[in-house]
Amino acid sequence: MSTQASRSAARLMLSPAVIFLLVWMIVPLALTLWFSFQRYNLLAPERSGFIWFDNYLSFVSSPAFWGAIVNTLILVVGVLAVTVIGGLLVALLIDQPIWGQGPVRILVIAPFFIMPPVAALIWKNMFFNPTNGLFGELFKFVGLRPFDFLGQAPLASIVVIVAWQWLPFATLILLTALQSLSSEQLEAAEMDGAPPLKRFGYIVLPHLARAITVVVLIQTIFLLGILVEILVTTNGGPGAQSTTLTFLVYKEAILDSDAGTAAAGGVVAVVLANIVAIFLMRAIGKNLDA
Amino acid sequence: MARAVTAQRKTLNTILAWAVALLIAFPIIWTVLTSFKPEPQAVASPPIWFGFDWTVKNYVDVQNQRNYFDYFLNSVIIALGSTALGILIAIPAAWSMAFVPGRKVRDLLMWMLSTKMMPAVAVLTPIYLIFIWLGLLDTRIGLVVVIMLINLPIIVWMLYTYFREIPGEILEAARMDGASLWNEIRYVLTPMAVPGIASTVLLNIILAWNEAFWTIVLTTTDAAPLTKFISGFSSPQGLFYAKLSAASTMAIAPILIMGWFSQRQLVRGLTFGAVK
Question: Could you tell me if A119 and A111 are in contact, meaning their C-beta atoms sit under 8 angstroms apart?
Fold first, then answer.
């Protein structure tokens, strides 16, 4: 029943948000594309000029690049595996009738609200540190030599930190989905003699499929951008053992002041993120119509 | 899918659930405990659980030696400022999408979402340079705007899902009674939407408070919030575990409390309505 007047009013009210987001998206992206074809070092601005794909070539052929791609994959897949499987188990557990469900939920969700540098530094110092960390104490207690987690297994240690931060997110969403599962259906299956594992495999898991997809996609978007956790723990090292694509671009831009190469790396990151985004948008878009 | 179980089963589940929950929250609990320890006892071997000399000295030291509250204030300004600005821009947009349905609403929402999926590093250089050119580097206003832009799609999206639940007939009735557009928003829509707006505000303060990419990259000292302050502990000198713990506890406490109130909104806001 909207009139012409309310239509134009609507357009007017929509415009600030749209204009802000349009500028925010197009200007930096256009600049990134432009820089990616330029020789542009912030410390030597006079040596600038159009160099076609040289930045892309030097970014992709740098020794750190393929390592960074592999590290990014390990980080994303590792964290996804831990959070989805762990989140599913925790969600199934706290969905059971228990005493003190409220406090338990609060404890489980708490890590999600910890800002990334706090999470990373708590783990780095108070757990992973070989001399003063609690894991070192634990190793000594069971008669093992303390292990330098961030030095010997930097990427795995970062996976632990990030998985700890994201476990509550997976748990919370899977729990929400679990609670929308009708108990009649499960009871019917139980009466028909379906054992617990079959009930889980044929009723619970299919019901959760959509929620799991959403968890995987949204987390992937965020995980591709992980920077601070690496910055304050290993700084990409030792060597380049924990350098991800995001960290590599950050290093080119901020530490090496090489805006051109960083921009080329940024474009590579955009392409990667978009591949994930397309799948995510499809999953979300379906729900909009429903 | 809660179902009736025996008391024995329930006891077993309770013990297991509490054990898992305490294990997950343990790093936070340990940090809070450590923040009250004298520095030497914070690194004692074997670790001291409760029988240490409780003290608040670390909290005092963090303020006196490192000007904690300057950073805290910046965090508050950035979180509240960006949320307020975002809400102001998003309310009209979400209103028009929810109540003046056009063919383009779906596309528009999806497009807004897509801006959220742009990796931050991809635009790091241009944003950094734009900040230098405009003299916005290390200013609060610059950060307020950037953090607002990052969260604007989520704000619009959340408000839209809340507004859509308000029956349109009520608005039509107000319109028939001759209410102007502004009055309609001010007196009819806003009061009904307050719970939704409050949830959106809460979630966005949390997200803005914890944002740790732009706040670290675009600040040095003047506008640096707590994310930057805490990151400063990455190159330690001397004994610092108890001080790090005190600073961390103060940085996470306000958000933990807010977070507990916004569990439900978290799901709605972060999955863009894909999971209810």
Answer: yes
